[in-house]
Amino acid sequence: MSDFSRAFRRFALALPLLFVAAPPVLGQDMLATAPPALPVNVSAPTALQTGDETPWIYEGSDVPRDPEWQFGEMKNGLRYAVRQNGVPPDQVSIRVRIDAGSLYEQDSERGFAHLLEHMLFRESKYLGPGEAIPTWQRLGATFGSDTNAETSPTHTVFKLDLPNIDAAKLEESFKLLSGMVREPALSAANLAADVPIVMAEKRERGGAAARSSDATRETLFAGQRLAVRSPIGTEETLRAATPAKVRAFHKRWYRPENTVISVAGDADPILLAALVEKYFGDWRVSGRPAEAPNFGDPVAPEGTDAANPVGETAVVVEPDLPRSLSYAVMRPWRPVQDTVAYNQALLRDSLAQALINRRLESRARAGGSYLYAQVQQDDVSRSTDATFVSLAPLSEDWETALSDVRAVIADALENPPTQDEIDREIAEFEQVFVSSVDESAVLPGSRLADDIVQAVDIREAVAAPDTVLQVFRGMKDTITPEQLLEHTQALFSGAVVRSVYVTPSADEATVDELRQALAAPVAADGSARLAAQDVSFADLPPIGTPSDIVQQAPIGVLDIERIDFANGVKAIVWPNQGEPGRVSVKVRFGGGYRSIGAEDGTYASLGEMALIGSGVGELGQEELDRISTGRKMGFEFGISEGAFTFFAQTNARDLGDQLYLLAAKLDQPGWDPNPLIRSQAAARLAYESFATSPAGVLNRDLDALLRGGDPRYATPDLADLADVTPEGFREVWEPLLKQGPVEVLMFGDFDKAEGIAALQRTFGALDPREPLPEGVASRVPAPPPAGETTVLHHRGDANQAAAVVAWPSGGGVMGLRESRQLEILVQVFNNRLLEAMRERSGASYAPAVRSEWPSDIESGGRISAIAQLQPDDVPIFFEEAARIAADLTTTPPDADELARVTEPLRQYVTRVSSGNLFWLFQLEGATVDPRRVAMMRSLLNDYSRTSPEVMMQLAQKYFGGSEAYRIAVLPEGQSLAAATQP
């Protein structure tokens, strides 16, 4: 029961959803339309499982059926699931899952499942060579997001999120997908085109992190297929691939019996079922279906027993990776009867893990020997049921860190938890399940279609959110400390224990020392248990005296209003029912990067990690966790060019207290040093790993380099971090929290009067703000030096490199309309670069071009092209980027090339404009610069309507006026003299 059990196992909610069912707007005449009707050339479906027939996904299960889904099983063995869902409007999400991944490959076929994923997009029955990407773009789907695929050890999934659907477009999409899956053109020419792309992907994923991951997989799954079956494959088998070998793999596994299709979207499910049956119902493959290989069980090596279960261990030395240690208690995986009782047991498992993880986190927060530690049970690729323990030692004394973590776990294995601890975790679980019910109406179809894929992969069923909540509430009062002790003991019982330690130092540990440390007895440590503590919002001091509302009026868009308080705080509010159970709050204050001194860049970087954790008034991290137990509350902090931001997603019940916490951070900031010290340690460990790959070097240096070396955007180095003190942190951030205007945006499902009253007693009660320091507005980053090439070096694999080309653009609100047209030009550039570097030469797996246009400042924008490559291909990348830029200045894109860009952009904007977050992000800052409101009215046209002449004019303005700035990241010891003169 995927929604059910996985929700229990991973009870943290996903990131806020952008696509939600709010009223469509953007100044268009949007008429409500019925879902596409059944076309006359499509017969009614005959394989739907109706009446008392048990749907295939619920066979052997007593989990209540989700009535929103309809299921069918055709005579050829193909199964499907369809449902109507209007989030986002006019979109249908299709998933075609093949029950074959890397674990199904023979030794000579390693990487073939993933290679086939690529080849199905190359050419097929209804799509000529290279036609798939432009065809989907013309249908409005963005390649890489709306059109994608994935290969795992156990499956290959083809994904399509089709916008602006009608019956004809739906039918065409099913037809194209059926041709791809059933009859791909697996020719020598297509193989020759795709192998280099897969090799580029393999190269870009390589390096120290890949070696560490491979060694970990080989150790933890020793003796099983998973140990030696990475989806990316091996260079030897990929280069030895032939059309005959690839066709044999396709014929063996791409069969209707191995296929499940899930479809969710804004269409009649009968139509969706009919289209599945029309284009896949006559699919036949000769021969008997092959049996899935035996994935194997974790088997303890000789010499181990219940008293000493420690088996395979490994010490992986990677000089540029931070220390990390993991061990796993391994058990055989077996299919389960996905019943309510089974899921109730999973819930108890999840509670047991949550209790331990809270204790481990408490120990780390207090300044323990490790940066983080976590326990997680997982069923991995139908190969093992394992309990994983992972930790990051803070120093070379890994033995103390391991011992400290094991001691906390030992206490959980010996002594039952307190009732207070249990009640706290139950409250957290219940809040998540209640929120899932509240927000079930706004789950996007893509998520729902993916849920079916996941359920099939783990051989479980699906359940509606209200079923999850009902079952949970029906059992929560039966949970006892003794039960959770039993579940904890079961989680740490298994056939064998395996471990891997990744270290930068070769002489820090041996395999025998690691094995002995895991087998050594450890005394239970109950000091990390959290004592019962009553913390209530009612006991907290008020922010201040609420000020009067001096202005309240519509802004001229929808029913959105602006509210000005006498203390200078301004708010933009939009209560609406578009997203049931969800309220988004964003606070903008101060001057952002503009208000940070060049000498304070290190504290700016650490502020993003530590400022919230440093507390509010007398509330530290633990008290903040405690006071929000069972509540839907958040607290994210960010820095933009022109403002600092808080962000949270909450609900109407908790809105007032959420606003209090956000306002209190400005009014009564806490300065607990422990979060800073922990963030300092995390930054130090991360910095040591940046040089391990080209991507790591760019992650470290790119932001500052593209801003003329501005130290405010630089990643702190080890010397900078060594100079950090809690006193210095407070000295920098305390005045920043007091400066500049405050704007609060509050959009979502709340009562207008109650929401405004909560604003008035929180942000409306703040003391008047101090003005921004003089000269802040002029502190904008400089552009990088035009015409120059910066060469950086990494210590990773000798076949890895990266390159960046950047042109300065602009910034500011008045240029927003031009920035949107510029985005069209950038997408044209991106398509051409993808064709040149990936499709034509296989030099780079995923080159990308992007435009950044800061609206808070009047300059500082840029257009940048980036790619990971082989070192010899860096000059080629520079040449191709320069060639494309120059060509755009003289030869405008034709109508078809523009349509392939503007249609996906139009569909994207239409979809996201149906959500509150879209409006929030577009209107933030409007109380400071009201011109943003007027800019909203042309947004859709700006992104979707243009002309070849406008594109050429923009190209001449931004590519013809100055030379590009270039960055090359090469292996140590290599130079790039040829790349400096492209």
> What's the CATH C level of the largest domain?
Alpha Beta
CATH topological fold name of the largest domain: Cytochrome Bc1 Complex, Chain A, domain 1
Number of strands: 23
**Mean pLDDT, rounded to whole units?**
93
**Portion of residues in helices?**
25-40%
Report on the architecture of this protein.
The chain has 982 residues and is of the alpha+beta class. The chain folds into four domains: 33-280, Metalloenzyme, LuxS/M16 peptidase-like (Cytochrome Bc1 Complex, Chain A, domain 1, 2-Layer Sandwich); 310-443 and 455-519, 2-Layer Sandwich (Cytochrome Bc1 Complex, Chain A, domain 1); 537-778, Metalloenzyme, LuxS/M16 peptidase-like (Cytochrome Bc1 Complex, Chain A, domain 1, 2-Layer Sandwich), CATH 3.30.830; 789-980, Metalloenzyme, LuxS/M16 peptidase-like (Cytochrome Bc1 Complex, Chain A, domain 1, 2-Layer Sandwich), CATH 3.30.830. The protein has a seven-stranded mixed sheet, with helices on both faces. Strand 9 and strand 10 (384-393) form a beta hairpin. The longest helix has 26 residues, at 340-365. Residues 87-200 form the Peptidase M16 N-terminal domain. Residues 1-27 form the signal peptide. This is Insulinase family protein.
